[in-house]
Amino acid sequence: QLGSYRDGIVLGIIVILNAFIGFYQDWKSENILESLKNLIAEKGTVIRSGKSRQIPVEDIVPGDVVIINEGDGIAADMRLLESHSLFVNEFILTGESQASEKNNTATVKESASIAEQGNMLFMGTSAAKGQAKGLVVGTGMQTELGRIAGKSQQIKQDISPLQKEINLLAKKITIITLLLGVALFAFSMAQGQKITAALVFAISIAAAMVPEGLPAQISIALALGVRRLAKKNAVVKQLSSVEALGSATVIASDKTGTITKNEMSINNCVFNGRPFTVTGTGYAPEGKILGNTKQPLEPAQLHDDEFFFTAGFLSSTSSVNPPDEFHKTWYGIGDPTEAAFCTLAMKGGYNLDELEKEFPRLQLFPFDSERKRVSIIRDKAGKHTSFAKGSIESILEISDQQIVNGEIKPLTNDEKQALVKHAELFATESLRVIAIAYKELNKTSAAKYTIEESESNLVFAGFATMFDPPRDEVPQAVQDAFDAHIRIIIITGDNEITARAIAKNIGLSNADNSLPEVITQARLETMNDEDIKKALLQRTLVFSRVSPDDKLKIVTLLKDIGEVVAVTGDGVNDTLSLKKADIGVAMGQNGSKVAQEAAAMVLLDDNFSTIVKAVKEGRVIFNNIRKNVVATLASNTAELICVLYGFIGVYFNQPIAILAIHILLIDLIGEMLPLLMLTFDRGDENIMKEHPRQKGQLLNRSVLLQVLTSGTVRGLLAVTVFNFVFHFHKDEADQLATGVTGTFITIILTQFINIFCIRTKTSVFGSFLFSNPNLLWGMLLSLLAMFTIIYTPFFNLYLHTGPLTVRDWIFPLAASLVYLIGFESIKWRKRKVSVAKKAEPAQLIAV
After folding, report:
1. Total Cβ atoms within 10 A of residue 112
2. What is the pLDDT of residues 194-229, one digit of tens each?
3. What is the reported pTM?
4. CATH code of the domain containing 677
5. Residue 155 DSSP code
6. What amino acid positions are annotated as catalytic residues?
7. Is 788 in contact with 748 (CB distance < 8 Å)?
């Protein structure tokens, strides 16, 4: 009765603990539909009965004409009726950080993606610049945002691989426990045993078979992983996702901002007919301008070229800023391409504030997709100059002169074609080419210029090439992923050339070192599911210009072929993919709130390398959980052997070797603390060289064989110790108590040895022995508790234990030594065979 009472208390505590953890996770988790509502403007301005009025968004209906001003949120899907220099932030739907130009005269293909629908506005986006009027064509669930919300509700997130295996394990243990308990109870009754005696045996079987502490150990292992990941800039919202990352076989990642810095960086310039090299990446002014001699050039050395390195900035509307309380590094405000020219000027040694004062802006003709350029008129001491910047074709179109070595010369058509071909060579290397031209104007400072005056008969000054550099840590992270036998797929909205170039820059390659295949959206539409699945089997792959629906399809097919998929996303358009994936990973810095809430994990630094770190942590966690499961079940097996020995011994007038209360004492005092501390193991250095675990590896046939073998050996050793101790205390009043105490001690000591042996594939006496101080302290405290129970009269009386003499201790210590030698000998033999065969290390249950 005492044992069953304490068992009930412990099980009750565990149930409460797990209920609290589940409640906490539910409280922390998101309501995606509620977040979608937060994206929608609360009011909209409509024209009804010829008058404009503001009404709640829920009152806007199809057919309403809505007025859009700069900064307004878009409250419904609408087709543009009028537009005036309209640019819209569509990041939440397209994932593109740059504002999209909208025009009511734009023509759109029927199959156009959201980003390509230039005459449409979508609910949840916002007007960055300009004004417009739009005809409402969809509201609520009939919008693009509503469609995503509806699909999000339909997608059921699967439980993690570990949850599936734990559920299966619990089911098997329950069935076996019930069958064995009922069978022994029935057998005892058939043999004429009293119902109370038969019931005691059945309860003992249940106590021996049920791993009481395992749920708490698993929860703590996951919680520790969450804490460690938080220190590495990864916030985990679902505990099970930590372990799921460890089983990931594929990482499907965005490019911009995750693999790259999303900071355009200029690396080459051709100004005044001369080439220059620019060092350094990102917006920080850390780098130099190099001339033909490859030596850094200071402003005093630029001479006549000084004008050109400032011209890019003077034709820009963006800015770059130093680190502040919200940004750890230099950051850009505005178009990333224009921000790159600000950094170029600073690398040349120029102070941007002083340049702005020296050349105040008079007029701006903003960029649009038709002209593909921007021009700004600036004043310097009454002298007006127009600076234009854009694609090389658009700048050459308005230029009829060029400057070479300080001399202005005519610019012929042949020379224009040569310049375009030169630029195309850079484009094949994934470099964006931006050209600059200028023109001196003659009006007075009070005059206004037309766009034709600003953008005609210009002097072509040269061009700069730029790129979005990979994050510094990404190439190594890619290699680490390959070493861990994880495949990488890039899904990007960039064109094929850019996608292929970035794949090359970060080291993506197939096993034969060939560059990955690039599949465009146009080609993807021609492929059936089987063709796509075949392509997805490659070690690495790149998808270019794909839509959110395409991304969802890719994730679905990856799961269909048995992959465990981690997917990154930042926009609302990624919500479906994030929910469908085994592990959805959202961006914390540049991601939308909806994406963050749909994901299982959020990267605070938006860094691909953090995903790989999380994979490592997931593997460590799984190994720690598996070690806990193996150690717990092996101990339960040993206890079961002792119970069965007593059950059989009854028919031969032999004493029982263990009491039900002792089984609980072993589980709760002798094992629980060391096993909890085992979850602090950090893993060895080779954990990221192994293959991702396969489904069912928590307790597969090999692992089960090890559990049964080690548990049976420990049980037989414990029974042997019991008989020796029981024999040496013959005719003493506490003979049985002393004998079962020998069993109790042997199971605990061999469990300690078992824990040490399964922690590593190498020798238990290596450096890994002391790598987890928490485990050592846990074992020490358990030993103190064990000695207290053995040598305190109060506990002797109520827990049926007896103090062992020095002679008695020889037997459990000898049994423990035999177990240690046997376990380590088997490990040594497996290592030797593995090396001899030049094969993978034999499967031992260890990190």
Report:
1. 15
2. 787 677 667 767 766 777 667 777 777 777 778 888
3. 0.71
4. 1.20.1110.10
5. P
6. 254
7. no
